[in-house]
Amino acid sequence: MAVSKLLLGFLVVTLSGFSVTSVSSEFSIREATVRDIRIAFEQNKLTSRKLVEFYLNEIRRLNPVLRSVIEVNPDALYLADKADRERKAKAPVSKSWLHGIPILLKDNIATKDKLNTTAGSYALLGSVVPRDAGVAAKLRKAGAIILGKASLSEWANFRSSNPSNGWCARGGQTVCPYVKSADPCGSSTGSAISVAANMAAVSLGTETDGSIICPSSFNSVVGFKPTVGLTSRGGVVPISPRQDTVGPICRTVSDAVYVLDAIVGYDRYDAVATRKASSYIPHGGYVQFLKADGLKGKRLGITKDPYFGFPNKSEISQLFEQSFHKLRQGGAILVDRLEIPNLEAVIPILEGDQQIALLAEFKLALNAYLKDLVTSPVRSLADVIAFNKKFSDLEKLHKYDQDTFLQAEKTNGIGQLEKKALRNLTRASKLGFENLMRKNKLDAWVTPLTSGAPVLAVGGYPAINVPAGYDDSGVPYGISFGGLRGSEPKLIEIAYSFEQATKFRKPPSFKP
Ligand SMILES: *[C@@H]1O[C@H](CO)[C@@H](O)[C@H](O)[C@H]1NC(C)=O
Ligand SMILES: *[C@@H]1O[C@H](CO)[C@@H](O)[C@H](O)[C@H]1NC(C)=O
Ligand SMILES: *[C@@H]1O[C@H](CO)[C@@H](O)[C@H](O)[C@H]1NC(C)=O
User: Fold this and answer.
1) Cα separation of 148 and 102, whole Å?
2) Which residues 6+ apart lie within 8 Å of 100 measured at CB?
3) Catalytic residue selected from 48, 121, 153, 187
4) Whole-prediction pTM value?
5) Closest-lying ligand 3 atom to the alpha carbon of residue 417
6) What are the structural domains of the chain?
7) Ligand 1: residues whose CB is within 6 Å?
8) Tell me, what's the pLDDT at 17?
C-alpha cells in the first residue's frame, strides 16, 4: 500500500498562511540537534526556557494545519526554568545528554502529570494513570522536558481494518509537512511530523508493525524501532507485549541514539522482557557507535521480491540507486537478490497468523492496562466498544468503524488456534529472517520504505529508518536497516554512516 501511494505522484498543495520564519543569529533552534543544543547551553547562548518558548510558539503556529500535537504540557516552562537552574548550579543531572531537552511523547505513553494519556480516543479522556510509563520515568531521570503528547492513528491503528493514517478523534487528521495531500502514514504520525517540522527537539513513538518506521519514512525523519524489550512497555497503551516496542523518532540518527540511551533498560513494570533484553545493552551505551566510517565492511542483504525487496527495474528501485551507490562507496558489501527458502510458508503467516495472535493478545493486554488505571471511564475492551457506539459522532464511528475491536472482543485468551498461529510465527522467523541473516552472514537487511515491517514485527527485531530522498512530487521516502535481536550497535554504525554520507533530509518548507 505504502509503495504504490508513493508512486502515484501527489500534487503539492500549498498552505496559505504557512510561512517559514528563519531564526537569525549564530545559533538556530530550527533544525538544532541535541549536540548543537548542548553546545549552545554550555556557551550560554541558549536556555531551556528559550527552547521551550520556541517550540510552544511553533506548535501554536503550525498545529492548526499539521495537527500533530494533541496536548502541550502546562508545566513545560516551569520544567524549563528548573532545568536552567540545575544547569547553572552544575547539578549532576545536568550532565545527561537529554537534560533540558524538550521531547514529545506519542499519546499512548503514560505520563503522571497534567497531560492526558488517551491513544487519541475520547474513551480514555479523564482516565488517571497510576504512574509514568517506564520510558517517561527514565526521560525525567535524564532531565528531559516532557513538552506534550503527539497525535497518532487512534489506538495505534488497531481499532479498524480501514483506518485513516494519522487520524484520531481527539487530534483530527495529521498532515505531512512536505506534501499536504500525501499519506502521512502511521501510527506514530504526530511524533514524526512534529520533529520534521521543528515543533520539538526529539520525540518518542511506538511500533507493533510498522508504526515507527513508516511515518518516519513518509515524513523524512529517523525512526528507531528497538529490539522488543530493550525499552519498557510499562504504562504504554498496548497492542501486543510480544511485538510492542517504544523508540525514538528524531531528525538525525545521533539524536535518536541519545534518546535511545536514555530510555533503554530494566523496568519493574515490564520486568521479564526488559530484564532479558538488558543483556543486549553495550557497556558505555550506544553513542560510541556513531562512527562516520560505520559502513566499512558491513554485509547488507537485499532480498528478492516477494520477500519485501526492491522490485527489479521498477521506479522504486530507481529511487534508491543513489542510496545503493553511497552504501557501496562507504565500503559496504551489498549482497543482492537473496531468496528465502519456503517462501510460501513464510509470507501468509506474517499477515494471517500475526493477526490471529494480535487480536487475542490485544484484548488481554488492553484489559490489563485499563484495569490498572486509577480512574477511567472505560475498564475493558467491551467498555471501549460501547463508548464508541454511544459517542459515535465524537469518535466518527460511521467513517472509521471499529471492526478490529469487535473481532478482538470475540477472542478468549490464547487457545488452540492462537497457539498454532504463534508457533507458525516463530517458525517463520527462524526459517525466514534468521536463516537469511545467518546463512549470508549479514549485518543488516536493507528494505525500501516500510516494506520489511511485518518480518521485523513478528520476530521482535530492531530497525532504523533513515531519509533517502524525495520523489518527483516532493514526497519523502526512507530506507530501512533491520537486524537480528540486539544488533542495535551495528544498525547505528550503518545508519549513521549512511546519513553522514548522504544528508538527504531537508527541512520542510511550503511556498506561499
Ligand atoms: C486533560 O483532559 C481534561 C479533560 O478531561 C482537560 O480539562 C485538560 O485540559 C487536559 N489536559 C491538558 C494538559 O490538555
Ligand atoms: C535485475 O537488475 C540487475 C541490475 O540492473 C540486472 O543485472 C538483472 O538482470 C535484473 N534481473 C531481472 C530478472 O530483471
Ligand atoms: C499454521 O501453519 C500451517 C501450516 O503451514 C497452516 O496450515 C495453518 O493454517 C497455520 N495457521 C494456524 C493458525 O494453524
Assistant:
1) 9
2) 37, 41, 48, 51, 80, 83, 84, 86, 87, 94, 143, 144, 145
3) 187
4) 0.93
5) 13
6) 5-289 (3.90.1300.10)
7) 71, 74, 114-116, 125-126
8) 34
